[in-house]
Design goal:
Structural class: alpha+beta
Helix content: 40-55%
CATH topology of one domain: Umud Fragment, subunit A
Distance between the termini: 25 Å
CATH class of one domain: Mainly Beta
Shape: elongated
Number of helices: 4
Length: 177
């Protein structure tokens, strides 16, 4: 009789996972899902030609706060209109990417006049068509900070540690079942 009661209790324990098991499993799974979503948001758009750039300065605030991730798609600069937001290479600064609004498009000179929304005057130099990387299609606040962090060696290591930690939590949850 005692053996039967012990067997039934063991079957009940297996039928409903303990609270510890459920918390560990949920935490591990949620962490893996969040890490996968961040990585997907950074990498997957490139497969359809959309390139993400991190906003590093406040020149486009409040529309594009510092730390936002701006997604740009290829565009023929001839089609750009005043008000469009574009990302371009700064020729004087090692090709650093800048995202500003188009003020005017000089079709004859094949260049744009741009200005940051928070700036009081247009950029000092026009942007040649060859420097245009793309037109902004949407942005996600804060995601640029994460993308920048993950692009460094330390960020990749941190991501690997988070993923391994999440997997350990998932395996621990199975052990507590």
């Amino acid at each position: 009789m005692a053996l039967r009661a012990q067997t039934e209790r063991g079957a009940q324990d297996n039928a409903s996972p303990s609270l510890t098991s459920r918390v560990l499993g949920f935490t591990g799974t949620a962490t893996l899902v969040v890490a996968a979503l961040f990585c997907a948001a950074i990498v997957l758009p490139r497969f359809v030609g959309v390139v993400p750039y991190t906003v590093a300065t406040g020149s486009m605030e409040p529309d594009l706060p510092v730390g936002s991730l701006v997604y740009t798609e290829p565009v023929d600069p001839v089609e750009l209109l005043p008000g469009d937001v574009v990302t371009f290479s700064m020729t004087r600064q090692d090709g650093a990417a800048v995202t500003h609004r188009v003020v005017s498009n000089d079709l004859d000179e094949r260049q744009l006049v741009t200005q940051g929304d928070a700036n009081t005057a247009p950029d000092p130099e026009p942007v040649p068509y060859e420097s245009v990387r793309g037109k902004a299609v949407f942005s996600v606040p804060v995601l640029g900070v994460i993308a920048s962090g993950l692009s460094s060696g330390g960020g990749k290591l941190a991501l690997a540690v988070v993923v391994v930690g999440a997997l350990v939590l998932c395996f621990a949850a199975d052990r507590f079942r």
